[in-house]
Write a structure and sequence with these properties.
The chain is an alpha/beta fold. Helix content is 43%, strand content 17%. It has eight helices and seven strands. A seven-stranded parallel sheet has the order 3-2-1-4-5-6-7, sandwiched between helices. Helix 1 crosses helix 8 (223-233).
């Protein structure tokens, strides 16, 4: 275990993949700030799980559909760093918060597009920008993408297009922030059995079987398949990985 007690900010860390990322980081000896959109009970549960894993944890509300609150959120992060962790800056920014939705291209609306744009691209872009003054030199930025930027899944045209933008954006982060020793990488999960997109996979045994059959390993992903990779990218062992897209999908559609 790396008992460095560095601090991570995991957006959307109250449930699903983000929760496991927070727990995995705590197991590595780190402390965590998570965000939640509206469900404080879930966030409180994650705090308990992170603390059981050995890390301090705080939760802040953040709704990326409306970006007018970003400046206020950054102030809250600064306050939390000082009061909870006796720190002025943090070390790992994990842009995980997301929203699901299978929306056929033929019926997609501008409202759908704009919500996905804010949550999955514009929010990530400007939260990262506004976080730079309180990110330590040598920090790590990890942006979440999706396997569906490499292979197509009908209904994901908006979601995957935004994630494609994130993948390009991450390369620019690596290039432009390198002088500060900041690494930036993408983690792109394949199908994972969580409550994402109304628990589509968990609630549909036929879909789960079909997706499992596409994988050489014969199953869909679990949350801890992803969280452990994020924690690795925040470790010293990953110090020379930069500007990369790492697909964590069990080799689906290989």
């Amino acid at each position: 275990m790396e008992n460095t007690h560095k601090i991570a900010l995991v957006t959307g860390g109250s449930r699903g993949l983000g929760r496991d990322m927070a727990i995995s980081l705590a197991r590595k000896g780190h402390n965590v700030i998570i965000t939640y959109a509206g469900n404080k009970a879930e966030a409180d549960n994650t705090i308990k799980l992170v603390e059981e894993a050995g890390g301090k944890c705080a939760a802040l509300q953040l709704e990326l559909k409306d970006l007018s609150g970003l400046d206020k959120f950054i102030v809250s992060v600064k306050t939390t760093l000082k009061e909870k962790f006796n720190a002025e800056k943090f070390d790992f920014l994990i842009n995980n918060a997301g929203m699901g939705g299978s929306i056929p291209f033929t019926t997609a609306t501008e409202k759908d597009f704009d919500e996905f744009l804010n949550v999955h691209f514009k929010g990530v872009y400007f939260l990262t920008q506004k976080s730079l003054p309180i990110l330590n030199d040598g920090a790590r930025i990890i942006n979440l993408s999706t396997g569906t930027t490499r292979f197509t899944n009908p209904g994901y045209s908006i979601y995957a297009s935004m994630k494609g933008g994130i993948e390009v954006f991450t390369k620019y982060l690596a290039k432009e922030l390198g002088a500060r020793g900041i690494n930036a990488n993408v983690v792109a999960p394949g199908p994972v059995e969580t409550d994402f997109n109304n628990a589509t996979i968990r609630n549909n045994p036929q879909l789960k079987t079909a997706l499992s059959n596409l994988s050489p390993l014969g199953r869909v992903g679990q949350a801890d398949d992803i969280g452990s990779v994020v924690a690795f990218l925040c470790s010293e062992d990953a110090k020379w990985i930069n500007g990369q897209r790492i697909e964590v999908s069990g080799g689906i559609n290989v």
